[in-house]
Known about the structure:
alpha/beta, Rossmann fold, 9 helices, 34% helix, 21% strand
Amino acid sequence: MNVPSVVSEVSTDGFLDEFPECPWCHSDRLVVAHEQAPYRLRECESCSVMFVDPQPDDARLGASYPDAYYPTNADSPEVREHLHWKRFDLGRVWPHLPDLDSGRHLDVGCGIGGALVAARERGLEPLGIEFSEDAARFGRDHFGVDIRTGTLADVVLEPSSFSLITLYHALEHLRDPAADLERLTELLAPGGALVIECPNIRATSARMFGGKWFHLEVPRHLFHFHPDAVSARLESLGLQTVDCCGFHPAHGAASFYGSLYPAQSGLPILERARRKAVVTAMRAVARPLARFEAWLGTGSVFRVIARNDS
């Protein structure tokens, strides 16, 4: 399947050219779903995928990431929490991979490398790709894992060489996710598995909060998907979906309390303390809401596991 590039030339005002059609399915049935000036989120009426249009150029997109987007203090609780959740994530996936006890693991958008550590602990040989040099350097120095800085297109990789490929909250950050999924499918070894986890634009919480939904993260999240769109694309590339899960205990709850209460950065210390207390209380309420949302089949975050059975 030949997926054409959808990345346009950089314009002089910090934005790329607008998309003439849906970059996921190529339909021209597009509507504006939300506006967060100077950005618009357009929705495709054919595939229901949503995307930022026009996309910011590299400089503007890079500036949208705060310095503390990834934790890089080795002694911070955020680093320990990051590693805890990455071990948890791989632990949930592992029962669906009964034949995977060795081989190479590729994590795209690996951040500081927690998923690589978790894979190494299970006997795999991990490799990460991360756009942030600070995050990649921290992962290499602190965890001792192999992280290449750049994008998937920047790294030379052998076809059919990975037993496991993961994208944990990375697909929505990619400029051309359709083309990148095609490349990743080519890198997957026979019998290997591709795991994708990202926000669900069809979630109940997404409909409740609309343009204020926590997981929109405009403009960092360039695309917004749902399980049907991702599963169908992977199957069109020759993979077989073996599991689709719609609940994550951390990200699901964040959809509710994060949407109701904005971030605390830049606030006076007393206001931050008050908000922290409120958020702590809201988390307790949000967790059962997230479980109920997932029970309805419209969880805030979904995970797809697909295998290469060729």
